[in-house]
Write a structure and sequence with these properties.
It is a single chain. By secondary structure, the chain is mainly alpha-helical. The protein is 70% helix and 4% strand. The chain contains 26 helices and four strands. It has helices at 2-18, 25-42, 48-61, 63-82, 84-95, 99-117, 122-133, 138-148, 156-163, 167-171, 177-194, 198-204, 209-214, 216-234, 241-259, 279-300, 306-310, 360-370, 375-388, 390-407, 414-426, 434-445, 448-466, 470-483, 489-499, 505-534, and strands at 315-320, 326-330, 334-340, 345-350. Strand 2 and strand 3 form a beta hairpin. The longest helix is centred in the last third of the chain and has 30 residues, at 505-534. It starts with a helix and ends with a helix.
């Protein structure tokens, strides 16, 4: 009965998200969080005070991902309102008339970089309109964008799925920073090898096999120009692989296309042509994105002083909130609430270090005078962004509450019970299935981060019980959350809305489910055959 009641909330959550007239994640996740609360209290004998402390902790913890989402959405809205995105759209369209080159530059490399900076489903919504503007069919573009936006996702939004998605496991002492780094390394290798297949499957949605064969050299060079630096950076850092790898890949892909390297002159060209973009227009349009990358880099490199300043935990001031806990603010503006309800539970929010205010909001404020945005324009930007993040806030609160409560109880926690059940069923063969659990999480939650939050502890428990490498299993979880983006309902709805596509969600899922399954097979083979040789 313990196993049944532990699995019930997850099964019910999946059902609520996939049934006809499915509930959105911002409704389903809070409902399931409430169910988990009730089950833990009445069946598992959870402490009422500790459960409520976990609830308060989740409310504070959710500020990290939701402010990152806010900053990313604000930045992308500014790019559209200022006209910078339109300039980039025209510039990218004129680099090469070859459709394969256009699809790889925008749908692969450009989206790769945007995922690294923004994440949370924005790359498909940004890259797709660019491609439609070049003359490609909206439905095909939607499918391609969803499939392409998988490899960089584990390190999207400055690595949020990795450092925050597995953050609860670190906070609980289950894994350490070295293991988190190893998770990033293994994740990048699996993605590297899958990238030789998945982008090609995406291209086939729009162009013929003949066109792919004729331009295969350019395709692989474009893929490697993103994934090689991606893996190299992941060996030392889990925040920048997608962002820097995408930026390098975009630069190299554009250079290759300009010189026609690896491209066939016989491949039919797209019909749409765009007016030329002057150097001044291009530099101005690139300023926000370049500033974003520079600010991120200088605040994350350990050798520079800024990272230490933004993470300064020395107390500035603090005071007691009575039974609620002790409130503290550090010199690095880290807001924390400790000893919540006298349980020892604590939570914090790093205002300056979390990639939200710095660099997104700062970059937007820098761009306001450069693009001559009025006070009304700026106000509209912030108001529209606040409205857009309300539903993700509810979804993330629900996910964090659910995860916090399912982790309570030590060896008798709901997560540990599920892990022991899965381990008993699969044994040493769990690596064959681990990525698909991550994909299920992304499918119903709309986020690799939420998938890692939701199932990371389950994967950890299975690894501990079976004796399989914990970093390997958690890397497969992260890869699964990334490949699940292809079939994520939220992302599909978002890209369809942007492109004006109606009643095509079912067809899109049927199409994207195939490369997602192939991705999982590749991940399982790499994990089973290759990773043990190096880790």
């Amino acid at each position: 009965m313990d196993l049944l009641l532990s699995v019930l909330p997850i099964v019910l959550l999946i059902y609520l998200m996939v049934k006809r007239n499915a509930l959105p994640s911002y409704v389903a996740l809070p409902l399931i969080a409430g169910l988990v609360y009730v089950i833990n209290y009445f069946w598992f004998g959870g402490s009422f005070i500790e459960l409520n402390a976990g609830f308060i902790s989740a409310i504070i913890s959710v500020m990290t991902p939701i402010t990152v989402i806010f900053g990313a959405v604000l930045f992308n809205r500014m790019m559209e309102m200022s006209g910078a995105m339109d300039v980039l759209r025209r510039w990218l369209g004129n680099i090469s008339p070859n459709p394969v080159a256009q699809l790889m530059i925008i749908g692969w490399a450009f989206a790769f970089m945007i995922e690294g900076a923004s994440g949370f489903g924005t790359p498909a919504a940004i890259a797709a309109p660019l491609l439609v503007g070049l003359g490609f069919k909206p439905l095909h573009v939607a499918i391609l964008a969803l499939i392409m936006n998988s490899v960089p996702v584990s390190f999207g939004a400055v690595g949020t799925p990795t450092w925050f998605g597995f953050g609860e496991l670190i906070n609980k002492g289950f894994i350490n920073d070295n293991e988190l780094s190893q998770i990033g390394q293994i994740t990048s290798i699996i993605h590297l090898l899958a990238a030789f297949v998945v982008p090609v499957m995406a291209l086939r949605v729009i162009v013929s096999w003949k066109a792919i064969r004729e331009n295969l050299l350019f395709i692989f060079l474009s893929i490697l120009s993103c994934t090689v630096p991606y893996v190299a950076i992941a060996w030392f850092n889990y925040e920048f692989p997608a962002l820097v790898g995408g930026a390098i890949g975009l630069f190299i892909s554009v250079g290759l296309a300009n010189k026609g390297i690896g491209l066939s002159k016989e491949t039919e060209t797209a019909d749409v042509q765009h007016e030329k973009v002057s150097r001044t227009q291009l530099l101005k349009a690139l300023f926000p994105t370049a500033s974003l990358i520079v600010i991120l880099a200088i605040t994350r490199i350990k050798q520079l002083p800024f990272k230490a300043i933004l993470n300064d935990a020395n107390e500035w001031f603090g005071f007691s909130l009575g039974y609620l806990g002790d409130f503290h603010v550090s010199k690095g503006l880290i807001f924390s609430l400790s000893n919540i309800f006298m349980t020892g539970e604590s939570a914090s929010y790093k205002l300056l270090y979390v990639p939200a205010f710095i660099p997104f909001v700062v970059t937007v404020l820098m761009a306001v005078p450069i693009f001559s945005l009025t006070r009304k324009n700026t106000q509209d930007l912030f108001v529209a962004t606040f409205k857009q993040v309300q539903k993700p806030f509810l979804a993330l609160v629900g996910a964090l509450i659910m995860v916090n409560i399912m982790l309570m109880g030590g060896e008798q926690s709901m997560v540990q019970i599920i892990g022991r059940g899965l381990a008993h069923a699969t044994g040493e063969y769990w690596t064959l299935f681990a990525s698909y659990l991550g994909a299920i999480g992304a499918f119903f939650s709309g986020s690799n981060t939420v998938s890692n939050l939701t199932f990371g502890a389950v994967q950890y428990s299975v690894a501990q019980t079976t004796g399989i490498s914990v970093p390997l299993v958690l890397a497969l979880q992260s890869v699964g959350g990334a490949m699940g983006n292809m079939v994520c309902i939220n992302n599909i709805i978002a890209v369809c809305s942007v492109l004006g596509i109606e009643k095509a969600e079912g067809n899109i899922i049927k199409t994207t489910a195939v490369p997602m399954f192939v991705y999982g097979v590749i991940a399982a083979l790499v994990a089973y055959l290759l990773i043990p040789l190096f880790f």
